[in-house]
Fold these 4 entries.
Entry 1:
Amino acid sequence: MSSKLTLLKFNSNIAKVNFDDSTGKRNSVAKDYCGYHTEKAANWNCLSCGSLLCQECFPAAPEPMRRPYCTLCGGNMHHLGVANSLPPFWSQMPRFFAYPFSVNGGIFLALLAALTIASVKLFDPSGLLVLLPIFILGSLAIRQGLRVIEFCSQGKSRPPSIPDLFDGNPTTLKMLGLILAYSMLVRSLGHLGWFGLGAIVCLSGLLPASIMLLAVHGSLREALSPVQVIQLAVRTGWSYLGLVLVLITTAQGPNRVIALLPAATLRQLSEHSPHVLLVMFVVSTAYFNMVMGAMMGYLLFQHHQDLGIVPDDEHATAPADKRALDLARAVILVRESRYEDALRHMAGMVADYPNDIPVLEYHHKLLCELGGDPERVVQHTERYLNAMVGAQRKSSLVGALEAARRVVPHYRPGSIAVRRALAEEYFLQRQFKPAIALIGMLHKEAPTSDELPAAYYLLARIYSEGVRDDAKAVMVLDFLLKHFPGHAMTGEIEKYRKVILSLGKTDQPGACAAT
């Protein structure tokens, strides 16, 4: 059906809300895809009929207490969230290892290097005071790692800045308390033989979950709660097990960096420049600490809805827009060939939004393409054209009129103001015949209308500047001067008449045929 194809082309413009994939490529890592845009990840899923829709097709906002209904079956719509469109953890490895090299990450690593060099210069390695810079450097690294987890769990792409580390939450001390608690527990389990060894392995596997809870909630109680820790591990599923294995490997990074140095170089640095080795160790430790933080944060972000984490504004769903959602519902009905349902839905929207141009536009398009009810086409076109004139959206007038005339061939708007605006648009498009047909006989249809002088002044311009018939233009102007003396446009009419005569385009004005 050609009308359906035309409507579907129109749908791509009318229903666009806030998701626009300019690449046109299928997101191969998403779990589910939109039923109408197969290259886009689905954001909504109907729990009853199973339909999958992207945010463009269903621009709703998730509400915890009230789910939106499905357009097709009326069932509850479930929000799939950002997680459905996020790439899997393993595919982001290059990004994790590049994460510390951003501006904020580079500044932090440079700060640690400078503090390390200053500590070597200012403190005696054999004295007790050397513990102060060690504590400061360790605290900064711990705090940075926790903030990285927090930032990444919210979907933020940049690492925290130096000021972001000092937000008043003493998570560094809480982290030290967490490590102390785990150390004591491991020591206690070490006396229980094979059972204790198995418990220690399980406990070590749950340590990342405790760290993530501390980073996100800032509560040592939650981080040490067995229920909370196990729930986090279970909710993230197999991804958590993969994370633990990757973290075990990544944690060996600082030692591997030092081991990469040739033996001769390592020996020379140890003898002559031990501070260089110290700086390398501190910076590499902080680097891999940030990498592991990015990994843990990304896993949390993948499950942020289940874990109650509020994403950053960059990933937040747009606020609920009932009008946009209602308009998108009509598009879905058209795509499913449920045209009568779509018409009833749009009639209700027009009642709710009587002056909304996009709503009137889509209803007009739907009526004209289906073409089954000429009377409704005329009634709605009158409303639509008047609304566009009132909103100064005159560039679309001609297209709307011609679409209506494909259903009602001899249709002419009843409003003189609309007909004048249409004639002006036709004039600008240099289509003079339809312009004259719209306003050429207004002196008979509406001789007392206040819009007549402006309409006939436009008619004179069309005759003179378009058709090149100055005699008719002057006759129209004479008609206005005779029948509307003292009108606000009289001066402009007389001036235009003099211009035509002064250019010598006619010798004698003649009498107006309209009289």
Entry 2:
Amino acid sequence: MRRKHRHAIARAAALGAGRRIYGAAKRRRKAQPPAPRPEGQSCPYAKATKTALIGLGAGAGAAVGAAVLHAALTPRKKSEYVPAPDERAMGYAQKLSAMVKCDTTSHANAAEPEKFLAFHRELERLFPLVHQHLEKTVIDGNLLFHWQGRTSDAPIVLMSHQDVVPAEGEWKHPPFSGAIADGKVWGRGAFDTKASLMAFFQGVEELLGEGYVPACDVYLASSCTEEWAGDGAPKLVAELQRRGVRPFLVIDEGGGVITDPIGGIKGNFAMVGVFEKGKADVRFTARSSGGHASAPGKHTPIARLAAFVNEVETKPPFRRKFLPEVKAMFRRLAPYAPFHLRLVMGNLWLFGPVMKKVMPAISAQAAAMLQTTAAFTMQSGSDACNVLPQEASVSANLRFIPHQGEAESLEILRELAGKYDLEMEILHSSDYTPPVDIKGGAFRQVERVIGDTFPGLPVCPYVMTGATDASFYQAICDSCVRFAPVVAGPEQMAGMHGLNETMGVDCLPGAVDFYKNLIRAQEGR
């Protein structure tokens, strides 16, 4: 029998097996009562899956059969974790409430020491043992506490910022009331990020009360300039460098216990940030001799800018790629997905090329993990409707991905801007952070502590598309992990930097326990 005949028989057999397995799974689903679905809603991946299958064509029958077989044999899992009632919760909520009542709004390049000194006094009242036993350093309102352990080698740093963004608009409860209502603490900073700040201060307070001595030095760090990417964290890093500190682990905000992380996947998941995309603010300017709007020429400044923006938006010039960390995220999420989604996410070796194309239509957040992004955010032109501008500009915020970093992404845009005779000015730029080794000791330790603290909570690596203070700590630590151990549901995500920011009371005991367990986990290193 010739090889091509053997291959044809194998493809037919695999495809037939895949069809039978898929048919059996479909019949089982029909036999079960369907889960209720809100009217007008459907899983966003259903259409993508159909598109992927059609795009592969009949010639890939063997591969499709293998993928269907793999998806059918992958055991379906369910995220079991929900915060349990705990008698400690209200006491922790009252401490968080007191912290929220302190207005620590920060403004770019504005020195406002009094509000942060007032917040520091409140911390001293709430956590007296921390202030009695740890060495405290204040640098222009930024806090650094040193808890001496049995060794100073390879310490850990727990960090969360003090400052918050401005609170505007009409709130259900005043933004600095710290109201405790409906099972939540209300107010600016309740979620971002005074909850985690409270949790690690409280965790250390309780360990000190037990007479515990950590295996290694522990640092508590909190900047007051994070919300505007100020110099607070760099000053703390410079102080640690002066002391010769080289941490084993830095853990900051960024990821968290995320509810329903991707459409079609239900439950709580520990999404652990392993690197941050780089970022830049760039201005594009078009110039001309101006003139009266009654006799416009061709290629006016705004027309050139509009064409440029349109090309970037409709034909993104950046390459999409599934990085190892993104592949690991989808692979770990796949068992928790319905069959059609499990088929795609669990077989990126086959569906990856198609998913790269359809991902932007499915989820902007997920798509941003695959490529450099450019978002146009500001524009300016003439001061009058009947005057052609001599100068017009648009500004964009860029986020760089590791496979096409700062230098390459900026050069791509510079060349594209030249096509429309635009000048490009870089206002600020920094590259992506090196990824944490998801097979390394620090990530594995965090993963184990999450499992011990939150039974039934799945753990997934996660790409940070935003920015945190942790990026500054890359200079002294190879394992800067982004994970705040609090539950972030749709309400918390909507309230972050928006109206009616809240933090669920029930999840606070778990957050405190996470930091205590993480400190204790250094015994096993």
Entry 3:
Amino acid sequence: MTALSTEPARSVSAGTGPAGKRPAGKGPGSRAPRNTGPSHTTAPGTDGYTARHLTVLEGLDAVRKRPGMYIGSTDGRGLAQCLGEIFDNAVDEALAGACTQIEVMLHADGSAEVRDDGRGIPVDNEPKTGLPGVELIMTRLHAGGKFGGGSYTASGGLHGVGASVVNALSARLDVWVEKAGHEWAISFRRGVPGQFAGDGPDAAFTPGSGLRRGPKVARTATGTRIRFWPDRQIFIPGADWTFGWLAQQARQTAYLVPGLAIRIADERLAPEGAGGPADESAEAGEGQPGRSATFRFDGGISEFCAHLSAGEPVTDVLRITGSGAFTETVPVLDEAGHLTPTEVERQLDVDVAMRWDTGYDTVLRSFVNVIATSNGGTHVTGFERAIVRTLNDQLKAARLLKAGDDPVTKEDVLEGLTAVVSVRLPEPQFEGQTKEVLGTPAASKIVAQVVSTELASFLEGRVRGSKQQARAVLDKVISAARTRIAAREHRENQRRKSALASSALPAKLVDCRSADDRSELFIVEGDSALGTAKNARNSEFQALLPIRGKILNVQKASLADMLKNAECAAIIQVLGAGSGTAFDLDSARYQRVIFMADADVDGAHIRTLLLTLFHRYMRPMVEAGRVFAAVPPLHRIELTNPRKGQQRYIYTYSDAELRRTLLELERKGQRFAEPPQRYKGLGEMDAHQLAETTMDPRYRVLRRIRIEDTRAAEGIFDLLMGSEVGPRRDFIAAGATELDPSRIDT
């Protein structure tokens, strides 16, 4: 999936609605109603709000009424959450040591299916409700085997709502369980148990509780198979699963559960619709029917860490494991059925794999019971605190940090670090059903203790063969700290200059008079184009900043080198909002930034370098949709006999458009000067032409540059603009057959 895309920019104007009217009876001269008696004698409901307006949502009705509370959204991300809930239940069986194989199928009819060879959902009747276990789990919120009953020591599910939520949001859901020598089956329609008369969600349905006993199976055979059809009354049109996302989930789970084999398959024939989570798997074969893949990794998260690390290694993969005990107070049902606060002893297992490389980016993935916590939590806080404290201690011991020096920060330590942080514990506390943040307080302290002890042993050289690597890590971290301090000093110097003199802005900046919402900064290639642009611009709100040729490729340069580069520093200084983590979008001096370069290969390269600078150091501008690329014409056709109301000049923006336009003019019998003019650069246009085609908001075409997926965007910038030559060469070679030679500007 493309991480960066362009879209035409549109002007938006705001208006005001009609003024509110004075309520009847409240105007001047109107009388206040007379109080006719005590307030307690007033008839109930005289304000129109009575008990009949109250609604009680029974069973799974609340899920269908507010699905976003349970799955986050009703687009492709919500669909992914539904499939993830069923998949996670199968993984929990693997964590319990009862499952070795999982299969996930995306069927051609829009349904999804998950199979596992675990213990199988219970089919006997639950004593309190009298319902079969599988029916209870699929129809009641907060029902399951993960509330401390001893079935699972660690699991991703803990609220008991995952399967029942998926059931409520499915037009049809079928469950097959192999257990006790038989295959048992049950079906549901929008959470209601019953039986379908045929295949698919549109078949006739008869409501009714109870399991159906199927054919005999081997007494030792166990497992669960769940297939569901998402309810299109709930999910938005076009919402679908993507095979690349599924491959990513399966791969990372296989890393986290060594020995578990996960097979995924896609039987859909049509390319997938938009709306799902972004793909990260280049080998997933997006858009091809009959795709499948199998993942199994016996090396666990050590292999995962090596897979995620893209740079040249500074250290081997360092594996840190340990555990710690803690107590927490939880409500427990007593014999009388009352919830009683009880102190429970817990154990938390820590498993961390980490490696530093020569790059500058940080890759940190965190998991709780194999559930990805994309927004971190207490376990990540403990990990980061431990490595910062430990490295500061080791730098002082090695005399790389002297008395009075600033300590290294989290940003210094994480530079170039790839880490996988995984913890396992019973009944973790998550923030919300989507489980993106771990909230268990004890995790921070235990993770910090384990990581501090093991990392100190590595850095002190107590691990065989670690002395040289440990020194390389210390050197890298202290270098990052010095670069950060130099950048800070640079910013302070710039601020000091701005405070002392009003001429802090670069002399080559051609500023505009207004600073309102119309203000635009054109970054112009070359002095010749600048001269024309000065006369073509509207000086009220259009500013110009010329750059000389191609700026520094900041993707493979350090922060210090970027700040030393005159062109990069000028752009940051003119925009006036800082850079990196200190960038303040609200402080930007211009509402829009527009790259204006020639319509040739060199111009495309300059735009790419500028975009790399903005993505790396001024990303909020891109995320806010305030960065654009101008679209100058490539050709000009001069009509020798323009007809009434017809412009003398016609501009085209590609060779294909030129050919179509010339054929159309010949068909209409209109003459034109030959050959049509081909612009070699912006400087060949006069001011009127440049304004008419590229700068005047009434006629120009802009392409807004936006980020659809942050992680995928970082990957493509690192691939195409980073320091690793091999992957880029492979990318070019692999895509050579897809290139249209006619599009190469020679």
Entry 4:
Amino acid sequence: MISKKLVVVLVVLYLIGGLVHLGRMYFHREEPRRCIIAMEMNYTKNYLVPHVLGKPYFKKPPLHNIVIATFFKIFGVNEWSARIVSFISMVFVSVAIFCAAKSIIGVDAAFFSAFSFAISLIAYFNYGVLAETDMFFSMLVFMSIVSIFKNRLFLGSVLTAFALLTKGFPALHFFYLTLFSYALLKKRLRDTIFSKEVVFGALFIFALFFGWLALVSDGNIHRFNLALGTLLNASGSRVLSVEKLPALAKHIIKFPISFYLRFLPASLVFLLLLRKDFLGELKAVYNSSEDIKELLLFAVSAFVPNFLIYWIVPDGRVRYVLVLFAVLSFIVGVLYYILEYYSPYEFNKPFRRLFALTATLSLFAMFFDFEFVMGVDYIIAIFVFFASALSYLYLPKIKPEALRLFAGVVILGVALKLLYSATYGAYLYTFYTNYRADGRKVAKIILSKKPKYVMTDGGNLRLFVYVEKYLGMQLHPLSSKRHDIAIVRNKKVLKNIFYKLELPDHVYYVGRL
């Protein structure tokens, strides 16, 4: 059994890898939109209707933005407080995996199952450390479908309702496809569909969602239709693209490969299924343990129908099925459970070679940081070097083989994450356009004019997220009825120009209308 000391070491290393430089990089990708909405919620005290630069935004419901807005109030408006929401969500998913699996496959296998998701490329390197909706949404969806496995269907419906208020209608197919598939495999479809928990749960989902729409519309049927139609279009546009048939064949090949790669390093465990003897052990466990059989049936019920939706259409993206990586972790846990008593491989040599490689890469990272970044990231590279060296020396002392695999996978994942942060992350931060400084400068110029109302014609949200942050007020769309300060791309609309800002996408002018 895994020792408490080793668990503490692995958890501490994991937290170090995840939290180092969490708030360093400027807001990028979809982060500015999420954070502008959160800031404007706090500025206007309107938490029902998301706004971007003063315009209603209905492509996603408001729940995730409300959570970020809450963290902004507690920890201040900054990158760390926006991204920590996703990191906490990732940890919650991992804890939920462990809690759901430990009584079935044991503590060690449950820990490995949880870490297999927590350390994956798509979670640990991407959506678990970004202020985007995907990880928070996946947490709610995963907990809702685990509620099906635990036969707490009304709770699952409540969590589905919250997921629906986070990212829209995909929450429904994840929950109900899993529910009906699992009930079908269990031969309880009729009883499940007409059970009180499912019926009242569906009514709760309907009431909460359409109650929010009613509050948003404020009695205006056109606003109600706009909000609902925008949500339907945003959700449907992801999957209803079958007309793009030329791209379909390429997508069908690429999608599962991309999925597998983004589940690394734990997805390497699936290579065990290429061995007939290991498959035989899996079949024996499946037939002998009713609990493991139930867990595998549930994982298949949740994974297959939801995966197929995004696999068979060209616009399906791997991040849309982020929650399915957590589902697949249950199967990884079962494979580890078998490895605990039947290991066809010796993992010492492969992992020692990998740690030798990470130690070598850390030396290159030190050189890279000294030569190109010229920051303090070389300290991270030094830490990785010594961690890799110690792992190289002490890994042979960890027994049995399954536990050696466990420690090796987690330490390797953390080492790669830290090297990624010390090299590519440091490079991006150094050479990326410093929108934080640009936004602060624009806000300072505007505040010197003591404005009560600031407008814009839109543009690069990576700039405007910092303008709003340092202004401490909401930006509004241009209006011919007002003659206040504005940030625009068309200088002809300004009577007086105070400042000109040249960025890669546009030239922005600050002045008075």
